[in-house]
Design goal:
This protein is an alpha+beta fold. Helices cover 40% and strands 40% of the residues. The chain is built from two helices and four strands. It has a four-stranded antiparallel sheet. Strand 2 and strand 3 form a beta hairpin. It holds the Pfam family DUF503.
Length: 93
């Protein structure tokens, strides 16, 4: 069994209030969870209006499949939302 996760820091463009940020973050979390079958959560920078830290995780019996699912989710986030991934940290167990 493989556990894999990624923690990303996002810069959210055109977010001038916490309400706008929450709207974008909730959309990202719902879409990623439903399309890629990942566990997702906002894990940091909750008080900042244009920056967020999100965590994604997956459990599988295949390491390559875990990595592909997480990478696909990251690509989709950058393609469908006006955000920039500033940094990311991979976690494996």
């Amino acid at each position: 069994m493989f556990l894999m996760g990624v923690e990303i820091t996002l810069l959210i463009y055109d977010s001038y209030s916490l309400k706008e940020k929450r709207s974008v973050i909730k959309s990202i979390l719902r879409r990623t969870e439903n399309r890629h079958q990942l566990s997702v959560a906002e894990v940091g920078d909750m008080d900042l209006q244009n920056k967020a830290v999100l965590g994604f995780g997956v459990v599988s019996n295949n390491r390559t499949l875990c990595r592909k699912r997480l990478e696909a989710a990251l690509k989709e986030i950058e393609a469908h939302y006006e955000v920039e991934i500033l940094e990311y940290h991979w976690i494996e167990a």
